[in-house]
Design brief:
disordered N terminus; OB fold (Dihydrolipoamide Acetyltransferase, E2P); conserved putative lor/sdh protein from methanococcus maripaludis s2 fold; 23 strands; five-stranded antiparallel β-sheet; alpha+beta; 362 residues; single chain
Length: 362
C-alpha cells in the first residue's frame, strides 16, 4: 500500500510539472534537425523610422499650361488644311489657309495706318522745328505728339491681330500658323468649311507633351495622409516593373462633383514621350515619421488566432514570441512591443518551426 501511494505521488508530481510549463519557454536547438537549422534564415531586429504607404489610382493628363486651343479671331472660309490629327508640328508651321474679308480689312487698315503715321511723323518734325523758332505753341506740339502716339497704338493693335496670320499672296488668302510646337490632339477644321470668329469650339488643339501632369484621385478618408511635397512612385501597365518618381505639386481644395475625390497633381518631365495623356496609372505615396520602432521583415510574422507571432532565436534555442504590430509597409513590419533591437528572428521556414514549437507546448 505504501509503494502504491509512492507511485501515485511521483506520477502526480510529473503531471503537475508538465502542466505548469511556460508556453514561451525556450526550446533547445537540439529539438530541430541540424540539417534543417542550416537551411533557415535569421534576421536581426533593427530600429527604424516608421514609413507608411498609400496606394491611389489616377491618370496622365496634358500640362494645361502647354495646351493651346486655337480659336479664330476672324470669320472666313477655309481654303486648305496642312495637318492631320496626331501630327507633330512646329511653332509657326502652316496649319491652314483661309480667305477672310475681316483679315483683308485689317490688312488694308494696317497699310492705311502705316501711311498715316508717315505723314504724322513729318508733321511732328515740322511742328518741332517751328516750336524751336517760337512759331508754334507748346499746345500744338503736344497735339502733334498725341496724334502720332494714337496712330502708332492703333497700328500695334492691328499688327498683333495679324501676327496670328500670314499673308499668302495678293489673292486675299491668309495662313493660320501653329502657336506652339507639339502634337495635334484635336481637330475640327476641313477645307471648304466656314469658320466663325471666337466660336466655342477650337479649330484645332496643339499640346506640348514633353511635360505632363499625373492626376491622382484622393478620397476623403485619405486626406490626412496626403500632403504637398510627398514623394510618389508611379507605375503603369504599359511598362511592367518600371517606376517613375515624382512628388505632389498641387492639391485641389474642392471635391470633383462627379468622382467625389480631390485631385492631386504631379508634374512630370516627359522628354522621351513615354507617358501618354489618358494613360491609367497606379501611385504609391510614401511618408516617413520620426517615431522609431523595432522593424522586421514582414515574412517573419506568423498570424495565428488573430495575433501576431515570431520565432525568436535565443542563446539556448528558439522560442515563440508574441508581438504587437504598429504598421506595415513595403515588406517591413514595425513592432510596438515584443521585440527589441538586436533580437534575432527566423525569416525562412519560420512557419514550420512555429508549428513544431507550438505542438511541443501541448
Amino acid at each position: 500500500m505504501t509503494s502504491l501511494k509512492h507511485i501515485l505521488f511521483v506520477f502526480t508530481s510529473v503531471v503537475f510539472i508538465s502542466c505548469g510549463r511556460n508556453p514561451q519557454e525556450t526550446e533547445p536547438a537540439e529539438m530541430f534537425d541540424p540539417a534543417f537549422l542550416k537551411s533557415i534564415e535569421i534576421s536581426t531586429v533593427a530600429m527604424q523610422n516608421v514609413e507608411q504607404q498609400l496606394r491611389l489610382t489616377g491618370k496622365v493628363d496634358y500640362d494645361h499650361d502647354r495646351l493651346i486651343r486655337y480659336i479664330s479671331l476672324v470669320s472666313g472660309r477655309v481654303v486648305s488644311t496642312h495637318f492631320h490629327l496626331g501630327d507633330r508640328v512646329a511653332q509657326g508651321q502652316t496649319m491652314a489657309v483661309i480667305r477672310s474679308a475681316e483679315l483683308s480689312e485689317m490688312e488694308a487698315e494696317r497699310k492705311s495706318l502705316e501711311a498715316e503715321i508717315a505723314i504724322l511723323q513729318r508733321e511732328l518734325e515740322s511742328v518741332q522745328s517751328m516750336y524751336r523758332d517760337n512759331l508754334a505753341s507748346q499746345r500744338e506740339l503736344l497735339e502733334a505728339q498725341g496724334q502720332l502716339k494714337q496712330a502708332e497704338a492703333s497700328l500695334e493693335k492691328v499688327r498683333i491681330n495679324l501676327s496670328l496670320y500670314g499673308s499668302s499672296g495678293s489673292d486675299g488668302t491668309f495662313i493660320i500658323k501653329s502657336p506652339i510646337s507639339g502634337f495635334v490632339v484635336d481637330r475640327d477644321i476641313t477645307a471648304g468649311m466656314q469658320i466663325v470668329a471666337e466660336s466655342d469650339e477650337p479649330l484645332f488643339v496643339v499640346a506640348d507633351i514633353s511635360r505632363v501632369w499625373v492626376i491622382a484621385n484622393v478620397y476623403a478618408g485619405d486626406l490626412a495622409f496626403v500632403k504637398v511635397g510627398m514623394p510618389v512612385d508611379i507605375r503603369t501597365s504599359a511598362y511592367p516593373g518600371e517606376v517613375f518618381g515624382g512628388k505632389i505639386d498641387v492639391m485641389s481644395q474642392v471635391f470633383d462633383p462627379e468622382e467625389h475625390v480631390l485631385k492631386a497633381r504631379i508634374v512630370m518631365p516627359n522628354d522621351n514621350l513615354r507617358l501618354k495623356p489618358e494613360m491609367a496609372v497606379d501611385l504609391t505615396l510614401h511618408d516617413i515619421y520620426e517615431k522609431r520602432t523595432p522593424a522586421i521583415l514582414s515574412k517573419s510574422l506568423i498570424f495565428d488566432n488573430n495575433r501576431h507571432f515570431v520565432v525568436k532565436q535565443t542563446a539556448d534555442g528558439y522560442v515563440i514570441t508574441e508581438v504587437t504590430l504598429y504598421a506595415q509597409t513595403n515588406g517591413l513590419s514595425y513592432i510596438s512591443s515584443g521585440l527589441e533591437a538586436g533580437d534575432k528572428v527566423v525569416v525562412k521556414d519560420n512557419l514550420l518551426m512555429y508549428s513544431k514549437l507550438k505542438m511541443s507546448e501541448l
